[in-house]
Write a structure and sequence with these properties.
Layout lengths: L1 H13 L3 E7 L5 E3 L3 E2 L3 E2 L14 E6 L7 E6 L10 E4 L6 E4 L5 E4 L3 E2 L2 E2 H4 L4
Parallel strand pairs: 4-6
Antiparallel strand pairs: 1-2, 1-5, 2-3, 5-6, 7-8, 8-9, 10-11
């Protein structure tokens, strides 16, 4: 009886969202949950292309439909942030776009327009 109850509790827990750590990024994304799972589908908002970096904490959901049994849906937000603002970044200290509450659009990092550095577009004004 005890064993069947333990098995049922484990099955129930696996049906919920879980946090884990990415072990492999890219096409064959792997995440360590109760063991390592590989080749997980990664879901992101439409238009986004993202895969977790190894070591990044991610949210994993059990997929009720066809396809892989589990999927990565998000990464844990890093930093404090300002309520109401949006920041899209490739990691701490890397390229970022910030949409401020005051209407400011801030670009951080090297800015290219069609592959041309933005500074060169304004030379010789």
């Amino acid at each position: 009886m005890w064993l069947s109850g333990q098995s049922r509790r484990r099955r129930d827990r696996l049906g919920e969202a879980q946090a884990g750590f990415a072990t492999i990024g890219g096409k064959d994304t792997g995440v360590y949950l109760d063991g390592e799972r590989r080749a997980m589908a990664v879901y992101a908002p439409g238009g986004y292309q993202w895969t977790p970096a190894p070591g990044q904490e991610v949210l994993v959901l059990k997929n009720a439909g066809a396809g892989p049994a589990y999927c990565v849906t998000a990464a844990r937000a890093e930093g404090e942030g300002t309520p109401g603002e949006v920041r899209i970044s490739s990691g701490p200290g890397n390229a970022a776009v910030r949409l401020g509450n005051d209407g400011t659009v801030e670009l951080m990092g090297r800015v290219l327009i069609n592959g041309v550095p933005i500074e060169s577009l304004f030379d010789g004004e």
